[in-house]
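Troubleshooting entry. Yesterday's outputs looked truncated, so today I'm pasting the complete records for two proteins to confirm everything comes through intact. If either block looks cut off, that's the bug. Protein one:
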Amino acid sequence: MTGDAAAFIEQSRDRLNRMLQELGDDSPAAPLAGLHEASHYPLANGGKRIRPVLVYGAAAAVGDDADPGALDRIACAVEMIHTYSLVHDDLPAMDDDDLRRGKPSVHRAYGEATAILVGDGLQATAFEILAGIQGMAAEQRGALVEVLARASGPAGMVGGQYIDIRAGDAEMSLEELRTMHLLKTGALIRASLGMGGIAAGADDEELGALDTFGEHIGLAFQVVDDILDVEGDPANTGKSRGKDSAANKPTYVKLLGLEGAREEAGRLLRLALDSLGCFGKGADPLRSIARYIVARDR
């Protein structure tokens, strides 16, 4: 990753973290203080912040004409949806994970009922933030809400999670696995890119290119996750190695083998980079993010 791209990613994360901190400083009345604390616990627990960074990267690729404050709010809304999904995924009824990024998951730190409410609240707040963006046409705000709602619901992330929990020990074909992850992981990644593009006034060709890029890097992200489940260092990944294998979950490594999964990640990276041909140097941060996703160790 070049110094310029690394700086862009770091600046994007800093912008998001400042916005999240502002929201965290807005303390509610005493009866809701515990819910407020529990809601900001997972938001403050770091992470790669890939999806918000993609919002900024998409806007930069198009020309970065978007209002900076609007982009910060869009990035924040995307991160809230992603965080809500992690809080609910960790619940005993779902993946039953005690740790998230090396810290107790929300239901372990605050109780299962509170964790459910935290997820519900983060989802609602994300759409409240989008609807309240100032200085943006109502049609544009409506498009942002529609894109994020579709990616978050049954046609996206929720649908992919449903396929995942229903799969159990069942065998999956490679195409079925891809379909699941296009929904579970890829939908929100594609939405992040689309929303950044919408905010920057992207035309149909640019939105199509961003969506194709998102489809490929969304799948690559999951392929690398499956590889890290086999050979990742728990000190870096923040989770136990071999968890998916022990649960007999369908993975790219299970279907393609370790070397085949590495080759698939490389193939998806090439397709992602090729899809950005209509953009100039403004898309270099997106190109670097794609390379980072495939080369990462966490």
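Protein two, checking that the full record survives here as well:
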Amino acid sequence: MILILIIGLISLLYALYEYRNVQETHVFKESFNIEKTFGLRIVFISDIQYDYLGTFFNKKLIIKVVNKINELQPDLVIFGGDYIHHKGKSVFKYLNNIEAKKIGILGNHDYFDLDSVIQGCQEANIRLLINESITLHNITFIGLDDSRMGSPHLPHIDDGDFNVLLVHDPDDFERLSNKRHFDMTLSGHLHGGQITLFGKYAPILPSRYKQKYRYGLVKNNNSIVYVTSGLGGFVFGLPIRFFAKPEIVIIDL
């Protein structure tokens, strides 16, 4: 019994540590089978969720994340949705300090306080793409609304463009890539499982495709998605992760 308690305590302490240990993950264009070079550095983050029911907000972590992003000197920062966990605009005053062009999409948690999120994005100079596309650096970025809480649909897409799809839930990638090709897709939502069995299996994962899209590069037909583990989230009210390290994703195109 004592041994079980010790193991439990050590696991909890590690999970609290891992939550705060934000990694920098480099994903190379060759991983998407991209041959063309754009001379563009993208930083991708998702699922910040550093607030809990409006009573707790982790200021130290968001400052750490923003400073890391600025040190990377990206040309473009992309947000994959879920800026908030439940409520509030606290996060956006820090995101406003990111010194790069910013675009983003909505996640399911953002609908808990949608007006504040939309206003916060505007104040932080984040261009929200809700079933819209925007062309930057000769790349067309297509952002879809969240499929659980919103009404996603693809805008008009020119197949001759270099198309990057942004979806919060990777399950949407499966559906869309069954119909057409995307040069690159970025997604989040699943937090790498948040709590996993040593990074191999997540007991609780809200995806109809089970473990397929839990984390990392996944191919479907001829399209490839990168599913980030994201940054925050809570488990039973605790800011913990277990072998699902939070990350800032760097992509040099």
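Both blocks look complete. Sanity check on protein two: The helical segments are 2-20, 59-72, 90-95, 114-123, 170-177.
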